[in-house]
Amino acid sequence: MSEDEADNHELALVSRYDLGRDELEELLSDEPSYRVNQVFDGFYRRLAEPGELTELPRALRDQLEVAPGLAPAFHCVAESVADRGSTVKWLLGTSDGKRIETVLMRYRDRTTVCVSSQAGCAMGCSFCATGDAGFGRQLSSGEIIEQVVVAARRCRSERWGQLGNVVLMGMGEPLANFDAVWPAVVRMNRDLELAARHLTISTVGVVPGIRQLAGKTLQVNLAVSLHAANDLLRDQLVPLNRRYPLGMVMEACEEYRASTGRRISFEWACIEDVNDRPADAFELAALARPLGAHVNLIPLNPTAGGLSRGLRGSARARVLSLQAWLRQAGVNATIRENRGRSISAACGQLAARA
Is the pTM of this model over 0.90? Predict the structure, then answer.
């Protein structure tokens, strides 16, 4: 077990993907090492179910099917498809009755899965459906990894090629579950063989977590959900800002950039007449430019909570203007393509409802 996984060792095992090679070897202590290697390779490289490991003796396959700790973490409650089949959302149920959502998106040149790190969320951002639902519990490393496996299997079955990118931007705040998220990321890289540059961790500004990331050698991408560039407005949109105001967040981001050399992304949900004006672009540029940060502009997606607070997405023309103002100020800004809005799978819409 690596040092990066040690923090998660004491957490309860939930599914087969909570088992690293050492734990699997202990579980299969009566089997020769090459059998353990076959099982490990089957789970992580071939993404197989126990019954599909036909190179194993039938008795061992039957044992794996019923062994404690080797059950799947989830059952599929519902599957929704949008964008002519290129966006798939799964509503997944856990053994203890929690529900999460995972979204797979196929683009022309890549596939990306958006995975959840918590059941629900405690951050309470004013425009996010997940926060409206409240916090359920932390997900284990295995539950996080298993979402990636579900998506990778779908890519294979649809002949979309290998899964390209993983973004921890689903339900929950990843850096509030660091002890499970980081070991999961390490094993996505090592065991599922996903390149670090294709793994992105998102946060609304959990400063201790950003600083922990800065000390890691695996150089994953960091996306900070900013949404406001002054404390007064951000306190309203992102309540965590009252604990970690923008000055602290920017200091942590600079530490991360200096330590890793990786570019930071700022996520910006464009809200009509709230953060889409020239003054907002000026304030955002003042934060992004010193860090060399990239800005992702995301037209706000409708949610019941956001609409009840009078929050609506910016018109396309205003989003384009915001992009132009940022570029004029020397900031690289792109507009994210909204996917899955019709099935409540777009940014901010995940609420784990059938």
Answer: yes
